Amino acid sequence: MVFIKRHGLIVISLAATWFLFSGCYASVSVPQRSLRALGGRAVWVPLCSRRGVNGSAPWFDATSTAAMDQQACISPSWGTVTALRLVFAAFDMPQQGEVDRSVIANGTAAVFVPGVNTVTVTGGSGVAAASSQLNVFPGTGLGANGISLGQVVSSSGGAIASSTYVTGVSNGFIAGAGNAPNSTTVSISAPTTAATANGQPFTFSGLLVPVKFGGRRAFTIEPGHDVVTSDPVSVELPPSSWFMIRTSASFSIPGLQMMDVPVTARMTIVNSSGSFAEFDNRATAVNDQTMAPLSLSNTGGGYWGPVTLLGLVTPSLGQVAPGAVLVLGDSIAAGTGDTPDALGLEGYIQRSLENTVPFVTAARGSTTAFGLLSHGDGQYALSIDTGITDVLLEAGRNDIEQFSITATQLETYIQAIAARYTNAGKRVWCFTVPPTTYSNDAWTTLANQGFPVTVDATGATTTTAGVTSISMATVANIAVGQVVALNGASNVPAQAIGPGTLVQSINTVSLSIGISVPTAATLAAGTKLFFGSKVAAPSPLEVQREAYNGFMRTNWQTSAMSCAGLIDVDSIVADPAGSGGWRTDLGQASADGVHPSSVLHQAVVNSGILNSGHFAIP
After folding, report:
1. Is residue 3 part of a domain?
2. Dihedral, CA atoms, 228, 230, 231, 235, nearest 10 degrees?
3. Both 63 and 133 in a single domain?
4. Could you give the number of structural domains in the chain?
């Protein structure tokens, strides 16, 4: 391997292949892909890219004990899918770690492929309005070109309501004019809206394939499981075909916190058939064991379904199956701070991978490296026999900033997590930790940022607008020159503490501070103030963050760390001059001092620090 650094760019030679990355260091490793091949070049990979929920909201509504939801997906552009497997997460993901599921889910699932097996037949004797059966002549029977359960029914005569589907098919002699032996009776989900005439044509379209689990139609997810995976389902999906996954389930108690449900996901995927949404449909009732077609529209709330789908894909001529990625981490890995792109994906990780690399996101707000290490069995199970070749391990900010973990402790956690996945044949990509700062001008300048030192409360007396002295409960750890911010992570210029406010003096007798800018509004008694150091040294948290980043930049490639490469995000989003604060030359750096803004997420995407070249399979 040739390793050269020129003007901040990394040039890496892997055998005869050259990659040019910015802020990324990489080494050579060849991952294993469990369940890699079944019959020649076919390979199992995750389909329907998923992202984690990037906040603290429940992953399901608080009252439901039943759901029938639909996930719309598109097959990869580089190959043909000949089988599918559904993977349900059998663990919950509340904040700060994975926990065993406390509820029992019972359900069924089905795959529906629209627009295939289309057949138009002539109706037999007409039926009156409000009929739940159609008489079809001649009898078409069952089979590849016949009428089958779950197909969508339509008619040019206007007697069939939209989203009507087949609920039953039977052959035999039907008495009445216009019928004959071997005619077919078709039961439909919605009664006819008008009378049908003799010989009226009907069109049946789509293919419904029930999903089985251990040979059984129904599945049960009980506490203590990690993942539940279906039997393979035989399908034939050419490149860029769309299809549906329908899941019907009931739950032992309401108010679920489930890995399976992205509350805010609004994926819009565009193909030759137009636009449609992913994880975005809920039926008004659980019925028909997932046969009901749901409209492709946003219905609000959270949705329940598989955490990922596995597709057995045979690459097209000249195409090579890419690697597949499991994303682990906190709210930054889940995309907090970013604006969704055209596909509904948020964050530099998902937007760097979309359309090129299959991935599954198990990221969750407030996740810590310690939590991933001590409560990560379900997430680990997602990497086994799912086609995953690479793991992105973006964690550490919450360990340092929320729990005051030292750099040395964090290094130990990351090393142990990486080793677990590496020992399972996966490549693990480690990350640096981006800044955390306070600001009193909404992170629009570097000068008005400060590194966290202390949080305190004002005294009992309300501070009026236009004054430069504030009574404090204590002045411990406060120093002249520190940045003063209100509400820490959400300070804006219109609040009582204005832009550029610094500690100007400290009175240890009266327990008060003098500030450089008069208060812009009344400051209520008990309001918390945040104090940030202009340099790293007085901030114990910033000292540990910088120590950890320095260690990783020097030691990521050692055998002890087990990292295939280092994604140096901090080098992209932090001040290029090395102050440690958020860079502001591209615009507002953050909305809370914790998560990069959309412009910084985009800067990481533009840098090429993450791209498909990382995850190529030799």
Report:
1. no
2. -150
3. no
4. 3
Range of the domain at 379: 31-107+218-395
Task: Please state the pTM of the whole predicted model.
Answer: 0.81
DSSP per-residue string spanning 252-268: SSSS---TT--SS--EE
- Clarify whether residues 502 and 528 are in a common domain: yes
Distance CA 325, CA 391 (A): 6
Same domain assignment for residues 228 and 355: yes
Q: Identify whether 557 is part of a domain.
A: no
Q: Are residues 92 and 129 in the same domain?
A: no
Q: Which residues are CB-neighbours of 530 under 8 A, at least 6 positions away?
A: 438, 452, 454, 455, 484, 485, 486, 487, 488, 491
Q: 313 and 261: one domain?
A: yes
Residues 212 and 254: their CA atoms lie apart, in Å, by 25
**Cβ atoms within 10 A of the Cβ of 370, count?**
22
- Side-chain half-sphere exposure of 249, counting CA atoms within 13 A: 27
Looking at residue 266, what is its pLDDT? 40
Residue 241 in tokens: 């075909």
Low pLDDT (below 50) residues in the chain: 1-22, 27-39, 51-60, 139-145, 172-181, 257-279, 298-300, 491, 493
Show the 3-state SS of 167-229: EEEEECCCCCCCCCCCCEEEEECCCCCCCCCCCCEEEEECEEEECCECCECEEEECCCCCEEE
Q: What pLDDT, on a 0 to 100 scale, did the predictor assign at position 141?
A: 45
Question: What is the pLDDT, as a whole number, of residue 544?
Answer: 96
- Sign of the C-alpha dihedral computed for residues 289, 291, 296 and 297 taken in this order: negative
Whether residues 284 and 343 fall in one domain: yes
The answer to the question of residue 97 being in a domain is yes
Nearest Cα to 123, choosing from 187, 195, 172, 178? Answer: 178
Q: Are residues 57 and 183 in the same domain?
A: no
Residue position matching structure tokens 């079944």: 38
Q: In whole angstroms, what is the distance from residue 178 CA to residue 163 CA?
A: 27
Does 433 reside within a domain?
A: no
Answer with the one of 510, 533, 556 that is the final residue of a domain: 533
Contacts of 207 (CB under 8 A, 6+ apart): 112, 113, 116, 117, 148, 150, 151
Distance separating alpha carbons of residues 190 and 167, to the nearest angstrom: 10
